[in-house]
Design goal:
538 residues, ten-stranded antiparallel β-sheet, seven-stranded mixed β-sheet, 27% helix, 31% strand, Sporadically distributed protein, TIGR04141 family, CHP04141
Length: 538
């Protein structure tokens, strides 16, 4: 008979604080056993008093006897395996709701790192992914068949359901991987030590599938800076901070529904709770932001806790960081928070992204000669002063666009804005710049800069213009077949992926996907600003 196991791994240094939490939560130490150099200790909710349903206080006045206090009793347990030799890790089997208490201490990459070393890559049946490009934020996908390494650019996988390649060792059943491993084996709990030995041997092997995913950072200084940025973002209601739509506890995916009752408070370690506030059955970033504005200014975000109560799982408490979606650019890197930990993209994620971008047709365009631009600008100033100039435009991009129109047969669109009707009745129309240049069905947006903010703005402007064109909101009267971006850099760049900014590359992939969705062809031009005098600024 096979038994289903939900296996976690924690660092040995986290075992003492975990045992403190277990004692407080009513998990009492039971019997011990020794197996394959591991001491096995069972913990069980022997004296569980149960949990009052969160909805009782709202409905008890309708009951025949509103003096009683009903309690739902759900038992739970843990089997903890400590190595009798020196080891950095402890393995745990979670039973019932005990994963709520483990959540703070577990090794987040454990399940996925195990999966990529033992998986039959063709057998993937389900995956949960987070997307960092395009319209999708997250997605759970099931498959009847899966092509090995068939992942999208901008996709990060954090949950898999598949079969093992070595079926003699791991069986032929479906196995689920995330923070933990959920597997059915023909071994009893007393043989947990042997299961651990097989797991550790597998973790020492090479990867069988290349999985794009987030990897936890382990730099405490960086973490503290990111924590400060997160707290300020929530306090200021930053758009990049939001409450996650679903929770993941090990291999369990729980969509956040209205059935929870929430309370927010401050607590450091085992100290008493302070500044408690009931926030009802919805969890919104605005509510959390208002709360943070009313607590001491020096509050550490790690001390902000959320208590969730439900009649099916009782109550459990987590750090605010564990329920948030947040991204930030810090020191030219893009960081993301997941399950309370800060992450970076792994190399496979970057490779998928670069591969997609390098498939965009690239043309090395005409360079911008800075010496010629300076001479043109001085002459233009004189003509403006004398009143003979048709306009007063002397900025670099206008010179470049005018030059391309005059000498390379492009149509100049720079400064030619198109009126667009407001979506609000009775409001005035607003102006949108279609692009900078047009030729042979290509509409081109030009940007001369090495600053990622400027480059990203150019990409966004191109997306907006193409969307409005497809909606017939702009009367540009052009036969547009191709949307193009033309970047003029100071440094020599041969491939667009040579530009060292993950934020820029992600936005570029957003643009590529959107252009394709609009049934247009994407294209990129790359040029260089040359003959730049010393100390010359844009």
């Amino acid at each position: 008979m096979k038994i289903q196991y939900n296996i976690y791994r924690i660092q040995s240094k986290n075992l003492p604080p975990l045992l403190e939490v277990l004692a407080k939560s009513g998990l009492l130490e039971q019997k011990h056993a020794i197996h394959f150099d591991h001491k096995l200790t069972f913990y069980f909710s022997e004296k569980n008093k149960g949990q009052e349903p969160w909805w009782w206080k709202h409905y008890k006045h309708l009951a025949n006897n509103d003096k009683i206090t009903p309690n739902n009793v759900f038992h739970y347990g843990l089997l903890v395996a400590e190595s009798t030799k020196s080891s950095d890790f402890v393995y745990v089997i979670s039973l019932g709701k005990s994963h709520f208490y483990l959540n703070k201490f577990i090794e987040r990459d454990f399940g996925i790192n195990f999966a990529i070393r033992m998986a039959d890559g063709k057998s993937i049946l389900l995956k949960k992914s987070r997307y960092f490009t395009g319209a999708k934020k997250g997605e759970i996908t099931s498959y009847t068949s899966f092509h090995v390494n068939d992942f999208e650019p901008g996709e990060s996988v954090d949950h898999l359901k598949l079969k093992a390649e070595d079926k003699n060792l791991w069986g032929d059943g479906n196995i689920v991987f995330s923070d933990s491993i959920q597997i059915s084996l023909g071994k009893s709990p007393d043989e947990f030590g042997r299961i651990i030995k097989d797991i550790e041997e597998t973790l020492g092997k090479n990867e069988k599938i290349q999985l794009p995913k987030l990897e936890i950072i382990k730099n405490e200084v960086t973490e503290k800076e990111l924590d400060k940025a997160l707290l300020n973002s929530i306090k200021n209601k930053d758009i990049d901070a939001s409450v996650s739509e679903f929770d993941v506890f090990g291999v369990n995916i729980n969509f956040r529904m209205e059935e929870y009752d929430y309370e927010i408070f401050l607590q450091n370690g085992l100290e008493s709770r302070k500044h408690k506030k009931t926030i009802g059955n919805t969890l919104e970033i605005d509510t959390i932001s208002d709360y943070i504005r009313n607590v001491p200014a020096d509050t550490d975000i790690n001390s902000i806790k959320i208590k969730s109560s439900t009649d099916t799982n009782g109550s459990f408490t987590r750090s605010l960081k564990e329920i948030l979606d947040f991204k930030i650019t810090y020191a030219d890197q893009q960081y993301f928070i997941r399950n309370g930990n800060w992450h970076l993209f792994n190399e496979t994620f970057i490779n998928y992204l670069k591969r997609a971008l390098e498939n965009i047709p690239i043309d090395i365009g005409v360079n911008l000669d800075e010496a010629n631009y300076i001479a043109w600008k001085e002459a233009k100033k004189e003509s403006i002063k004398s009143g003979t100039s048709k306009d007063k435009l002397i900025y670099r991009e206008y010179y470049f666009n005018e030059y391309m129109a005059k000498y390379h047969n492009y149509e100049l669109l720079d400064r030619q804005n198109q009126p667009v009707e407001s979506i609000k009745p009775g409001k005035a129309r607003y102006q949108v710049e279609v692009a900078d240049l047009y030729k042979n069905g290509e509409v081109i947006s030009v940007k001369i800069s090495d600053e990622k903010v400027d480059l990203i703005y150019n990409i966004v402007q191109s997306i907006v213009a193409m969307e409005l064109h497809k909606q017939n909101a702009m009367k540009a009267h052009k036969n547009i077949k191709c949307a193009a971006l033309w970047f003029v850099f100071d440094k020599k760049i041969d491939k667009i992926t040579d530009f060292n900014s993950i934020q820029f590359l992600l936005m570029l992939e957003n643009w590529r996907k959107r252009v394709r969705q609009l049934e247009l062809s994407p294209k990129i031009y790359i040029s260089q600003r040359i003959n730049i005098p010393a100390q010359n600024t844009p």
